[in-house]
Structures are given as C-alpha cells and as structure tokens.
Amino acid sequence: MRFVIIGGGPAGNTAATVAASLGAQVTMIERDIVGGAAHLWDCIPSKALIATGGELTELDRARVMGLSATGQIDFAALRERVASIEDKLHTSVTSLLESQGVRMISGTATLLSENKVGVTTSEGEEVLTADAILIATGSRPRIPDWAPIDGERVLTTRQSYPPPEVPEHLIVIGSGVTGVEFTHMFSTFGSKVTLVVSRQHVLPTKDPEVAAVLEAEFERREVRLLKGARASSIRREGNSVFVDCEDGRAVSGSHVLLCVGSVPNSAGLGCDVAGVTVDAHGYIPGNRHCQTNVPHIYSAGDISGRLPLSSVAAMQGRKIAEHVMGLTAVSHRHLDYDKAASAIFTEPEIAEVGIAEAEAFAAGRKIRVMKVPFSSNAKALILGDARGFVKIVSDPATGVVLGGSIVGRGAAELISVLAVAVSNRLTASDIVDSLLVHPALSESLGEAAT
Ligand SMILES: Cc1cc2nc3c(=O)[nH]c(=O)nc-3n(C[C@H](O)[C@H](O)[C@H](O)COP(=O)(O)OP(=O)(O)OC[C@H]3O[C@@H](n4cnc5c(N)ncnc54)[C@H](O)[C@@H]3O)c2cc1C
C-alpha cells in the first residue's frame, strides 16, 4: 500500500505513524514544519503563553496563601520558552515518524491526478504514485478585506507569539474560542482589553451558563465587552488603531487582534485535476470514513470542515490509516464527532463534552441535569480557587451520561472522565461507584453524578 499524505499536522502525522505501523509504505509531504500549524501557530504557542499568564495570576493569588510575590514578563525568555517547547515536540513527532519508516519530504504538494502527487522541493520536482492519498492541509486565519493586517498593530493570532510588545490597549475582534482565549491571555499580561462581541454574549455556540461565568470573570478584570457589535473597518493612525462597527459604534486602542475564524488551505492543491469535490467554502468534505468523492482520496483535519480541533484531526488520521489498511471489519469504531471533548483555556477553564443542557432543551429531549459548584469541594477551597461548577447531563430513564460541562480549575483534565463515560455509554452510577481520590477536584464529578 503506497500511502501519500499531504500535510504534517496532527491529522497527517498521526495517519502516517499509524499506517506505517500497520505496514503501509508512507510518504508525507510538509511545506513548513512537521507538527503543523497546531505546533507552530495554534495550540502549542497559545497555550504556552496562556500558561505564562496563568503563573502571573498565581502570583496574585499567592497573597491569598499568605505570600507576597510579584512578576514581570521577560519577553526574550518567553520567546525562547515557546521555541523550546515547539522544538521538543517537533523532535518527538519526527523521531516517531522516522522510527516507523515514514519518508518525510520537505516541500509543497499538489494533486496531478487521482493517483499522482507532484512535489516541489528546494532541490526540484518529484512525482509520487499512490494507492491512497490523504489531504490534511489545515487552515489559516480568516482575514476580511476590511482588515489591513500589518504584523505590528493590526495582528492575527499568528503574529502574537508573543506580539512585538504587550499592547497597552488591545481590541480583540471575535468572541469565539480563540477570541476569548486571547482576551484572557492579554488581560493576564496586563493589557487593557476591549472584546468586540457580535452577539449578545461571548461563546455564542456554548452553554449560556458557561459563557456567563466567563463574562463575569472578564468584567471583574475590567475587560470591556462591546456586545452586539460587528466590526466593519480598521484604521491605523500612528500608534493608534480605530475599529468601526456596522451600527456606528467605534473603539480605539493601541493594537487590534483579529479572531474571526479560519479558511481552509485548499486553493492550488489540484483538487479539480484529481476530480475531488471542494465545497463552496473551500472545505473538502468526506463520508464517515473521511473518504472524499474519490474513494481512495481522504480528507482530515481542518480541511475536512468538521470540528476544527487537533484532537479530532489526529483521531481522523488514525481512523483513516486503519481504513486504508483494511482494518474496518475487526476493530474500526466510527468517529462520533458529537462525543468529542473540547476545552477553552481561559481562567476559569471551560470544558464540555456531548450534549449540552440548552441543546437538549431546544431539541425537546428529556434529560436529568445535576450541577454542583466547586465552592463545596474541599480541594478547591484548599487551592483558594472555588470558582465554577460541574454539570452532568444524563438520560433519566437509563442513567446513561449524555454530556457535561465543567467550569473551573483543571476543567480540561477533569472532562476526560465525562468523555470516557459519554463515549462508552457509562451511567451516572458508574461514576458514583468509582472510588475517587480525596481531597480532589474530581470528587465534584461523583457528587454531580449522584
Ligand atoms: C489560535 C488557535 C489555538 C488553537 N488551540 C487549540 C487547542 O488548544 N486544542 C485543539 O485541539 N485545537 C486547537 N486549535 C485548532 C487546531 O490548531 C487545528 O484544529 C489543527 O491544527 C488542525 O490540524 P490539521 O492537521 O488539520 O492542520 P494543521 O495543523 O494546520 O497542519 C496542516 C499542515 O499542512 C501543511 N500544508 C498545507 N498545504 C500544503 C501543501 N500543499 N503541501 C505540503 N504541506 C502543506 C501546512 O504547512 C501545515 O503544516 C487552535 C487553533 C487556533 C487558530
């Protein structure tokens, strides 16, 4: 099986490792860095900076613990730290791929036909013949035509690792996951932040109760929320930026950061030549096996137009590798996107899995909802941070856990318990009957499941 993979992000490199371990002859082409945008621009640097901001907040909290401490960001050290994390991850991914015998080519790939992939490298051109192809080319930040990005004061997330300086007053446009994470990050760095929110609350696709906790925290930190405002132009004058909104409102600051979604990297890939369908938005859709309309050409990760998460991209890559190698009959379990856990790395952290309470009500579905605040959790009180809650949604007839939300310290880790429950149809009693650690934040899961 000659398997050619275009793109070395989580989707591509996971598919490569798994397929090679199952005996495929794998070639993976990556034009930037193996690890993908996930390592270079998205998940890793953003969470590394958020961790630094988190430490600054911890210093503030140290006062509650009876300590006195102050902190200041050392930008050179911060840059080095992010680079060193990326380097370690890059080395670990490439070593794994090498150990499985994956051929990695540094270059740009295009489809030449259903079975041929052309590669342009610094040394010249090469044509590869494939029995199966995976398109895993990812996405990049969306830049509307009214946004004159200059990398200095008008930025996308990709120019923020870290930005040239801590903005005095940052205007963040977009209040989805990326917008709120960067709002959080810069407010912990000491920037004054204005968040332009197009709807009436932040995180419009999430549980409103969850969004409310985050809004309260933003307000406590004096983040200004400009609600119901759609940005329509950005102007830079000297060291100031001006953002105008469709309804006539305007806001000025020192920097502006655009967080208005992403666009797929499908242009120039040669999908038309290979007969692969690209939808109106540039995504390459696939069926439940991630096969495109050309059955031996697959798409995975952000380019597939499914949930844009590294974890989902990697899982798609794994499932595709198994499908390519014919493992479907025995062990193949279809990917259920509705059961993917996700997290928002703000403070407090937010994590969700499965069905949300509001979604179930809207669908008229009978559910049982149990909610427990962390203020009754011993460990949360010991840690001096009892914000947030655990909410578990279950089926009232069977007790099967259908979903849950966690807001609070460690939410991104704690949600794993509910993710395992949702994926495996465990019941609330299964959680209650598990002997958990005391004192621990996870005890609130047992309490909410009772
Ligand atoms: C700011 C930000 C933070 C995020 N944080 C998280 C997070 O905490 N957790 C999470 O799960 N998700 C997070 N995401 C989402 C996550 O980064 C993406 O879902 C993930 O990177 C998608 O993986 P992928 O394999 O599809 O693509 P990518 O990681 O984008 O990799 C695609 C690769 O393909 C290469 N490529 C493209 N075209 C070609 C070509 N023609 N030839 C050769 N190579 C090519 C690109 O260079 C790139 O390296 C975040 C996104 C953003 C924007």
Q: If you compute it from the alpha carbons, what radius of gyration comes out, rounded to the nearest whole angstrom?
A: 23 Å
Mean pLDDT: 94
**How many helical stretches?**
14
User: Class by helix and strand content?
Assistant: alpha/beta
Largest sheet: 5 strands, parallel
Helicity range of the residues?
25-40%
Number of domains: 3
- Label the CATH architecture of the largest domain: 3-Layer(bba) Sandwich
Spatial order of strands in the largest sheet: 3-2-1-7-18
Which small-molecule ligands are present, each listed once?
flavin-adenine dinucleotide
The CATH top-level class label of the largest domain: Alpha Beta
Characterise the protein shown here.
The chain is an alpha/beta fold and 450 residues long. The protein contains 14 helices and 23 strands. Strands 3-2-1-7-18 form a five-stranded parallel sheet, covered by helices on one side. Strand 19 and strand 20 (350-354) form a beta hairpin. The mean pLDDT is 94. It binds flavin-adenine dinucleotide.
Q: Layout of helices and strands, plus pairs?
A:
Blueprint: E1 2-6, H1 10-21, E2 25-30, H2 36-40, H3 43-62, H4 75-99, E3 103-106, E4 108-111, E5 116-121, E6 124-129, E7 132-135, E8 139-141, E9 154-156, E10 169-173, H5 177-188, E11 192-197, H6 208-220, E12 224-227, E13 231-237, E14 240-245, E15 250-253, E16 255-258, E17 262-264, H7 271-274, E18 297-299, H8 310-324, H9 328-331, E19 342-344, E20 350-354, H10 357-362, E21 368-373, H11 378-383, E22 389-394, E23 401-407, H12 411-423, H13 428-432, H14 443-449
Parallel strand pairs: 1-2, 1-7, 2-3, 7-18, 9-16, 10-11, 10-16, 11-12
Antiparallel strand pairs: 4-5, 5-6, 8-17, 13-14, 14-15, 19-20, 20-23, 21-22, 22-23
Helix pairs in contact: 1-8, 3-4, 3-5
